[in-house]
Amino acid sequence: MVEDSVNEPEGKMSVPHDGRKIIYARQGQSVVVHLWEDRTRGEEWVPVYDSSVLALIDDDFLRTTSNNAVDSGQRTFEFQTLLPGQYPLTFDKRLAWKYTAEDRRVFLVNVDSPPA
Would you state the pLDDT for residue 98? Predict the structure, then answer.
């Protein structure tokens, strides 16, 4: 299974003791998050964020299996940072037939002001 990752140099990531992953970026930079998704099971990652401080600029799926019966791969979300500050970015793994999230990934985006 592919682990959650953040592309360099757009954002750097660390994991504090509470398990949230912290993404460091500058205002105006892109933050790219990769998550494993198995669409064969009906999985779909749904981002939850404040659109006034983060703008979703790309949402892509790269199929990584060669079997026609399996539809799984890497889901990539790209966000533009709009304002300096700390902002939660949560991804809920949803299944079409369930009312609650099956899994959740929680990030904290720490956005610094651009250099003067």
Answer: 83
